[in-house]
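The authors assume throughout that readers already know how a fold can be written as discrete tokens. Each protein is reduced to its one-letter sequence and a matching series of backbone shape codes. I therefore recommend that a typical entry be quoted early in the introduction. For illustration, here is how one protein appears when written out as sequence plus structure tokens:
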Amino acid sequence: MTQSISTTFVTGGASGIGAAIVRAHAARGDNVAFTYWSSEARPRPSSQSWVSA
């Protein structure tokens, strides 16, 4: 069975449910882009890379 790779765009993907969605899609190997609102709460680097080589 071949897994299809999709591209996902998540608004508010830096925290909460949005971040969980970003991580879930990245774990599947999908292409993921996300945004966040520019404020004091900025995305923190993950111990796991979200970008595949």
About this structure: Helices lie at 16-28. Residues 26 and 49 are 9 Å apart (CA to CA). The chain has a mean pLDDT of 78. The radius of gyration is 12 Å.
